[in-house]
């Protein structure tokens, strides 16, 4: 009996040692799959499994992330890694998971990344993120019904205004928009809803205005304009210029009258934070160089899956939006001759992806963090 107990004890110790050795050689990638993520070994050695955070299905982040992932896998040649797009709650979750090493790449809204790297506007710490590519614009605005009495941004004081889904982070670009016009966020009666829900609330009077946007045309704004007599609340000319000067993620964007039903004049709008591809500052330079190169060389294939891919162009892809670029991306852009002389291209109007799916990801059904 003593002999059997001794053998059992030795077997148990051997099994425990084996488990310990396995745990030491395998790092979980944070998504529950147990796949190994090994950093920068893009050549020989064991295969890397890289994860890219996107957002819930229903908006452009998930589609664009999947397109980039497929293009990378199809064109990586002998590189010993495989990319997988992962559905997440969006920008805020993506940034936190990049910081923890659970993700290697992610799609984010550049306004939200801007405040994350600075530890401002609700972020509890500074997150050391780096940009890889600036993607499609997110053109958003306050809209209201023509009979609401709201004619200017200042008129939103005391009004019920939909500011995106709960936890979406829209406050990060709405607050400076309001502040430039002398309105504090606390001056509103903020409401949370999806984009389509916001249109319904405008119709039944439960909301006085809504902040909506994405790619042009955005489906929810088209829906509102087709159903109701809609006014795009104008930004003050001086205030718009000040925002563009003060925040690098704001860009001028004119929405021509033909983009939405019932509009009789062009609208002097804003790109309030482009979609961008980001990574953590400590990600391997050679890996990011190779990924940036593959994305650039195969941008047409990405465009075939979503119009946002058209923004991977000489004027936009290396445009600075407030987050430093990763050294691997900078190296490729310099070699390709598309790196701007300064840290970012000048604030010029950029073409929007003409697609109904919103670039800024607010339209998914669940009121989760989309950005």
Order of SSEs: HEHEHEHEEEHEHEHEHEEEHHH
Counting DSSP H or I runs of 4 or more residues, the number of helices is 11
CATH-scheme architecture of the largest domain: 3-Layer(aba) Sandwich
How many β-strand stretches?
A: 12
- Please, how many domains? 2
- What kind of assembly state do the chains in view correspond to? single chain
In terms of DSSP E residues, the strand content is: 15-25%
- Which CATH top level class of the largest domain fits? Alpha Beta
Describe the model.
The chain has helices spanning 2-25, 60-75, 91-100, 110-118, 171-180, 195-204, 219-227, 237-246, 285-297, 299-305, 327-336; strands at residues 48-53, 81-86, 105-109, 129-134, 139-145, 160-162, 189-191, 209-214, 230-232, 251-255, 267-271, 275-280. The protein is an alpha/beta fold. Residues 1-8, 15-43 and 345-371 have low confidence and may be disordered. It has two domains: 48-136 and 274-336, D-Maltodextrin-Binding Protein, domain 2, CATH 3.40.190; 139-271, Periplasmic binding protein-like II (D-Maltodextrin-Binding Protein, domain 2), CATH 3.40.190.10. Helix 2 (60-75) runs antiparallel to helix 10, helix 6 (195-204) runs parallel beside helix 7 (219-227) and helix 9 packs across helix 11 (327-336). It is elongated.
Task: Produce the secondary structure layout.
Blueprint: H1 2-25, E1 48-53, H2 60-75, E2 81-86, H3 91-100, E3 105-109, H4 110-118, E4 129-134, E5 139-145, E6 160-162, H5 171-180, E7 189-191, H6 195-204, E8 209-214, H7 219-227, E9 230-232, H8 237-246, E10 251-255, E11 267-271, E12 275-280, H9 285-297, H10 299-305, H11 327-336
Parallel strand pairs: 1-2, 1-3, 6-7, 6-8
Antiparallel strand pairs: 3-12, 4-12, 5-8, 5-9, 5-11, 10-11
Helix pairs in contact: 2-10, 6-7, 9-11
